[in-house]
Amino acid sequence: MSEFDELQAAIRRHAHERQAEERACEAFINALYHALRAASGPGLPLNNVTLDFTTDPANRLRPVPTGGFHAAWLRLGLCEVLVRVRRVGGAFQGEYGEGGTFRLEQTGEDELFTLARQMLCDVADTYAGVGWERTRPLN
Predict the structure, then answer these.
(1) d(Cα 122, Cα 34) in Å, to the nearest integer?
(2) How far apart are the C-alpha atoms of 13 and 131, rounded to whole Å?
(3) How confident is residue 135, by pLDDT bands cut at 50, 70 and 90?
(4) Is the predicted pLDDT of residue 133 greater than 60, yes or no?
(5) 49-54 β-sheet, strand order
(6) Within 10 A of 45 (CB to CB), how many other CB atoms are there?
(7) What is the mean pLDDT of the chain?
(8) pTM over 0.85
(9) How far apart are CA 57 and CA 79, in angstroms?
(10) Which secondary-structure segment (H or E) carries 48?
(11) Segments making up each domain of the chain, as ranges
(12) Which pLDDT score, from 0 to 100, does residue 40 have?
């Protein structure tokens, strides 16, 4: 078997695992989108939040290998924030904006609302010139 054939076989062997991981990451990003829309509290949806899945600009291979990042642009009114997420040891680990990071072991409603509010505050701080000095753990 040639090196090319070995590469094709490896890609095929791990296709199911990659696809399951991609679906999980996209479902997480979609849940985060809904949390952002509800971040103002019950009965006060943010209607100017949109979601646009995209190829992660840092990925250098397609299809994305297992453990790679999946990305989306979240439009938050007047700005857009790139969110990147991947699965690491059963948790969702990700990055957003100009230096925001998160790791969620649990992805319940409370954890997603906390992340959504943190993202809104961090992005507002970026535009206000406050920067990313403060780190808020989510776990």
Answers:
(1) 18
(2) 44
(3) very low
(4) no
(5) 49-54, 70-76, 79-88, 91-96, 100-104
(6) 14
(7) 90
(8) yes
(9) 18
(10) none
(11) 3-128
(12) 73
